[in-house]
Amino acid sequence: MGEDPSRHQGINRLDPSRFPTLCTMIEYFEALDALDRQSTTAAAGTILRISQSAVSKRIAALESRLGYAVIERRGRGVELTPAGRKLLIRIRPLLGEMRDVLLTQDEVHGPTTLTLGVSESILSSWGAGVLRLARDAVTGVHLDIHTHRSPVVVDRVRAGEYMLGLCAGIAGTATDLAVQQVAQERMVVIPSGLRPIRLHKGTGVITIEEHAATWPSIQRGVRAAGLEVEARVESFSAIARMAIDDLGHGLVPQGVADAVGLRPDQVQIPARGQIVRPISIIGRKSVISREPTTTFLEHLAAYSMQALA
């Protein structure tokens, strides 16, 4: 016997009588959302804090209830079927809204805890101090801070897992979220071995990978300055360390150079300071419009500008 064609006919063939409780369905949808983000049941289970087998059971139960496949195997991982993708596009915003509602209810009963995602290169340099100042400026606010690369932060804010994000290089790309660009961070060159150099057309540098959020915002300035990218690395902190240890000139954000203890006279500013990356605060509109979140964001924006002035 062949596969039942109705398994792939999508959400238009749903039978309401087959649906379990709302809470159970939310668990199923969260498993689907996690699988889409992580691509394996093991990784999805980790972020959901359940076992790998529990993820598989939730997906199997969801497919049984819906009557069609939502995932398919791809090597060692999984990906969504077209019908599963169509379903997730519709329910992902609802998951985010439900998480917002739960967060709002928590605030009614005690101090406000703001869950933030912060770009790694920001938090490891000037970001931690700025977050502390903004937190201390607003009574009754606690911070639950997580760090990732900027695209991951955006994704998790979009899904409602994080309330806010402080990101580099994403201004204008997260059109479904509220995005406030608060500053621009200058890029600098750390000379290889910290030996003084004179930048010129064709100077080779090590910098961030092309798929990183910062690269699209600086690539035009890099080319205009005549710098040649000789190598790419995933971490700005690693690039700074490589440059200091004489493995090549490193193009990094100013804050990263400051964080490793370099003085202003030990770095070079290419293109008269015109190579910059945008720093933005992001959030779901339903979150950032509430107090004390609004006041916290005002302080976060002000202190970010001061830190990068």
Give an overview of the whole structure:
- With 309 residues, the chain is α/β, with parallel strands linked by helices.
- The chain has three domains: 5-94, Orthogonal Bundle (Arc Repressor Mutant, subunit A), CATH 1.10.10.10; 105-179 and 281-308, Periplasmic binding protein-like II (D-Maltodextrin-Binding Protein, domain 2, 3-Layer(aba) Sandwich), CATH 3.40.190.10; 184-277, D-Maltodextrin-Binding Protein, domain 2.
- The protein contains eleven helices and ten strands.
- It has helices at 22-38, 41-48, 52-66, 82-108, 120-136, 150-158, 214-224, 236-244, 254-259, 285-288, 293-308, and strands at 71-74, 77-80, 112-119, 141-148, 164-168, 178-190, 204-208, 228-233, 250-253, 276-283.
- Strands 4-3-5-10-6-9 form a six-stranded mixed sheet, with helices on both faces.
- Helix 5 (120-136) links the parallel strand 3 (112-119) and strand 4.
- Helix 1 (22-38) packs across helix 4 (82-108) and helix 5 crosses helix 11 (293-308).
- Mean pLDDT is 86; it is low at 1-14.
- Strand count: 10
Structural class: alpha/beta
CATH H-level superfamily of the largest domain:
Periplasmic binding protein-like II
Q: Please give the CATH class of the largest domain.
A: Alpha Beta
CATH topology of the largest domain: D-Maltodextrin-Binding Protein, domain 2
Q: Rg from C-alpha positions?
A: 23 Å
How many domains? The number is 3
What labels describe this entry?
disordered N terminus; D-Maltodextrin-Binding Protein, domain 2; 11 helices; 309 residues; Arc Repressor Mutant, subunit A; 6-stranded mixed sheet; alpha/beta; globular; two-stranded antiparallel sheet
